[in-house]
């Protein structure tokens, strides 16, 4: 029998509390401060579980970076009819648009960077 496990994506940044507040607001989740001083978690409904870790030597990733492939990013799924509102919400919270062309159809995806420079995508949910 396999041991039950939970996976948590951890993002590094210089100011974890500020980035945690951004994602908590964007994902309608809560910030949970644990015992580890340099890690803050974001937990919410629908399986949201993300952690933010302080990296004192943090340098934001750049996009696009032709010499490197993308390492990881968040893909946040929204209903097609909510895409424009989700985009306004993300930008209002401090996201920076990287590629937000409306792709139309069932594969609309829009790319942003969070306030610390990590890329994330708003994408239409398959329903």
> Quick one: overall form?
globular
- Helix content class: 10-25%
How many beta-strand elements? 8
**Distance between the terminal alpha carbons, to the nearest Å?**
33 Å
Descriptive notes:
The protein has 127 residues and is α/β, with parallel strands linked by helices. Helix content is 17%, strand content 31%. It has a 4-stranded mixed β-sheet with strand order 1-4-3-2, with helices on one face. A 4-stranded mixed β-sheet has the order 5-8-7-6, covered by helices on one side. β2 and β3 form a beta hairpin.
Give the tags.
single chain, 127 residues, alpha/beta, four-stranded mixed sheet, 2 helices, 8 strands
Describe the structure concisely for a colleague.
Helices cover 17% and strands 31% of the residues. The chain contains two helices and eight strands, in the order βαββββαβββ.
Write the topology of this structure.
Blueprint lengths: L8 E5 L2 H11 L3 E4 L5 E5 L5 E6 L19 E5 L4 H11 L2 E4 L9 E5 L5 E6 L3
Parallel strand pairs: 1-4, 5-8
Antiparallel strand pairs: 2-3, 3-4, 6-7, 7-8
């Amino acid at each position: 029998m396999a041991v039950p496990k939970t996976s948590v994506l951890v993002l590094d940044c210089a100011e974890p509390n500020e980035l945690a507040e951004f994602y908590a607001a964007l994902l309608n989740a809560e910030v949970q401060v644990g015992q580890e001083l340099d890690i803050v978690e974001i937990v919410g409904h629908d399986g949201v579980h993300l952690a933010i870790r302080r990296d004192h030597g943090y340098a934001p990733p750049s996009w696009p970076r032709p010499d490197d492939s993308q390492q990881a990013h968040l893909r946040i799924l929204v209903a097609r009819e909510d895409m424009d509102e989700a985009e306004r919400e993300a930008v209002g919270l401090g996201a920076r648009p990287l590629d937000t062309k409306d792709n139309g159809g069932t594969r609309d995806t829009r790319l942003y960077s969070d306030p610390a420079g990590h890329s994330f995508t708003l994408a239409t949910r398959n329903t």
